[in-house]
Amino acid sequence: MTAKIVTFGISKGGCSKSTSSGITSYLLSRNERVLTVDMDMQGNLTSLLTGEYDICNVFEKKTTLEAILEENAEPYIINVKENLDLLPSNDYLAILPGELMKRRMNLRALENALKPVMEKYDWIIIDTPPALSEHTLMPLCVRSESGSYAVIMFDGSMFAYFAIPKFLEIVDEVNNRFNSELRVAGILFSLIDQRAKENEPMKETIDEDYPRLRFNTIIRRKAATRRLALDGFENNKELDSALEHYKRFVRELKDRVSKKESRINKGQN
Ligand SMILES: Nc1ncnc2c1ncn2[C@@H]1O[C@H](COP(=O)(O)OP(=O)(O)OP(=O)(O)O)[C@@H](O)[C@H]1O
Ligand SMILES: [Mg+2]
């Protein structure tokens, strides 16, 4: 079996893409084999999982950029912990679009890079930057026999609300041109302030606009979750609290991915 592909995305910045893809990878790796891929030149997922912030030097020429340009991820994958591997990134990933053009490479290059390792993992989880650039398009183009999914991150703001249809538009485009099997696993509410009075109307609006797409789990804003970037996952006394909401989300994600009928996309609403 090949890995299930899950890409976390939204063009609005700061909606918890890196945090959510990192925590999801960590939780899945407790029972299954996970590769997590950092497609963002900010390298926040890389830092979150490795505790390394000097990514420019430490991962120099050892990143997703090289993996894509050589169309082989294998030499660049590092082990984070049992069952959890990472394809790291750093600032140089910014030159990806220019390099692809120079070398006349296309959006399939990430899929080609992942092909040699596709059977080694149960899940490939991909973090993307706040942009609908090649960095986001390439992950959505990755096909797998076990399915290819997008999780749309939503922080409850108007800015993110208006970013959702733009993301769905590129999902449609990718569906038509590169990956007919790509499905939206769902819209994940994250960074939600328990007391914000706009939460309920926003939920209703999303449910009306995108029936069945919203994950039931709501990821609340929590200081313990934010501090993961500081304290890491190992020997972290507040880990349970930091991951609390995500445990439910991961169960829901697995459930949606395992049921073919829940491979919903815009056209099926
Ligand atoms: N549930 C949460 N509770 C509290 N803080 C959170 C939570 N999720 C994420 N954060 C914090 O919010 C900020 C934005 O999160 P994150 O960097 O994961 O978003 P992003 O969508 O990846 O951002 P970008 O668009 O820049 O890539 C970070 O400081 C992160 O630590
Ligand atoms: Mg990020």
From TrEMBL:
Domain AAA: from-to ranges: 4-183
PANTHER family reported in the protein's UniProt record: COBQ_COBB_MIND_PARA NUCLEOTIDE BINDING DOMAIN-CONTAINING PROTEIN, P-LOOP CONTAINING NUCLEOSIDE TRIPHOSPHATE HYDROLASE
Protein name, UniProt field: ParA family protein
